[in-house]
Amino acid sequence: METLFRSDVALGLPLYREVKHKLMEALRDGEWKPGETIPAEKRLCERFGVSVGTLRKAVDELTAENILIRHQGRGTFVASHSQDRYMFGFFHICPKVGHKEYPTVEFISLEKEKADGDSARRLGIGKGTRVVRIINRLSLGGKAAIIDDILLPERYFGGMTADQVRERHTTLYQLYQDEFGVAVLRTEERLEACGANEQIAGLLGIDEGTPLLHIVRRAMTFRDEVVELRHSYVITSDYEYYAGEEAMRVGE
Amino acid sequence: METLFRSDVALGLPLYREVKHKLMEALRDGEWKPGETIPAEKRLCERFGVSVGTLRKAVDELTAENILIRHQGRGTFVASHSQDRYMFGFFHICPKVGHKEYPTVEFISLEKEKADGDSARRLGIGKGTRVVRIINRLSLGGKAAIIDDILLPERYFGGMTADQVRERHTTLYQLYQDEFGVAVLRTEERLEACGANEQIAGLLGIDEGTPLLHIVRRAMTFRDEVVELRHSYVITSDYEYYAGEEAMRVGE
DNA sequence: CAGTGGTCTAGACCACATT
DNA sequence: ATGTGGTCTAGACCACTGT
């Protein structure tokens, strides 16, 4: 196939990366929504003027990043947030003995605040920018085990109300997706140990100073823009944090 | 190309997975040692009787798992443990502010013991099996920050001596590789918060009960056999654990 | 220069899902 | 039967590395 010009943004990039970039743009622009199929490979090849192999290499990378999901015989789908996906890819707490279970979520509060310096830096916004702050209590095995302290930039989540958060029967990431059109694509987590302060101890019904796992999670959407900053405080007497590939482990 | 029979272990597996399996076997058998190049793609295609595309797909997976490393123009190399690789892929503690630094390691003790029930289970060996136990103290920024309590099955590390561990100027994984022919291919980590007990507090020079990050790491070699069980106790006032893909993050 | 891996093509056939 | 993704081939050309 004769290649005359290769796109306006081809800075020596391999062709399949250009294609990947264009797919990302289309996804970001909402051309295909979460849960929908994208066009068949053959059609996409025509659209981008590349061969199957090249198109597949672009899609390969997007599936490896859990942005697209392929189903043989059915099509290629835009990844959608669900309870299962949350458990598999974003919730890293599991019991030391026994099987992983979904936490019971109890809404505590929703407030509008101004971001302090540290939060603003982590969110990539200016200090003092307005944010939504949500506090939840999560229970595992019937016992309060985790406090989630969540900050959301108003830019993405302006009209969020307490009722929206309280009445939902989905994960928060589904709420972001369905009500605000925000797709969480990946997260990054940093962990430390801390002693429970007065507020957390009260919410969890434990003694002040009890060792807790403190997780700082940043959730990113397209272009690596941060859309959520979450502090989780976890009682780790019966549960632990699992750092694993989860994905891969395919076969020898 | 005419395919008559496809290997003795072809249980409906794709051809490229068979090839991957055979490459793994050759690596496990030491046909190519860490740091060496494996034969050029063309030669491997002849050896396995497959086309380049198929061979490449097998090698792609092995490079994604950090078992092989490709260098354009130079060849494909068997991954070898080095200080840099340890920092990049296995040492997940970094300062809350500033750049990642390599820890100073101080040898505390090496003993031969019998594995208790919990350790034996995690190592995949029988209770009471003999193991080597190493304790190290790691310092960051000049201050003691981590205690490593390491268990190694005697099956792999029988003749290990305190001098071997004390006198080395490499990472432990390099020692496993160079002196015992054991290749650590991947690790799995579980984290919890705990209060420092008397022994750990003493070794770290902190108060008993200080909240610490407790990391339980299992290191695996070929066939997912566990070759190391490591308990790390980390002071997280200035440092934190980073859970990240590290790899990927390739490009939009 | 020769040799290596990196990209790309064009097309065949297979396996699976749906109609 | 049709359409989807999954595998595989055979070969071309490019980019990088070392001699």
Describe the structure.
The structure is a homodimer of 252-residue chains. By secondary structure, the first copy, chain A, is an alpha+beta fold. Chain A is 30% helix and 32% strand. Chain A contains 9 helices and 11 strands. A 6-stranded antiparallel sheet of chain A has the order 5-6-7-10-9-8. A 3-stranded antiparallel sheet of chain A has the order 1-3-2. In chain A, strands 4-11 form a two-stranded antiparallel ribbon. In chain A, a hairpin with a 2-residue loop joins strand 6 and strand 7. In chain A, helix 1 (15-28) packs across helix 3 (52-64) and helix 2 (41-48) crosses helix 3 (52-64). The radius of gyration of chain A is 21 Å and the shape is globular. The two termini of chain A are 37 Å apart. The model of chain A is unreliable at 1-10 and 247-252 (pLDDT under 50). Chains A and B meet through helix 1, helix 3, strand 8, strand 9 and strand 11 of A and helix 1, helix 3, strand 8, strand 9 and strand 11 of B. Strand 8 (186-195) of chain A pairs antiparallel with strand 11 (239-243) of chain B. Chains A, B: Pfam families: GntR, UTRA.
Biggest interface, chains and residues, is: A-B, 39 and 39 residues
Q: Quick one: CATH class of the largest domain in chain A?
A: Alpha Beta
CATH architecture annotation of the largest domain in chain A: 3-Layer(aba) Sandwich
Assembly type: homodimer
Averaged pLDDT of chain A, please? 93
What is the overall silhouette of chain A? globular
Helix content of chain A: 25-40%
Fourth CATH level, the homologous superfamily of the largest domain in chain A: Chorismate lyase-like
How many extended strands of chain A? Answer: 11
Q: Tell me the domain tally of chain A.
A: 2
Radius of gyration of chain A: 21 Å
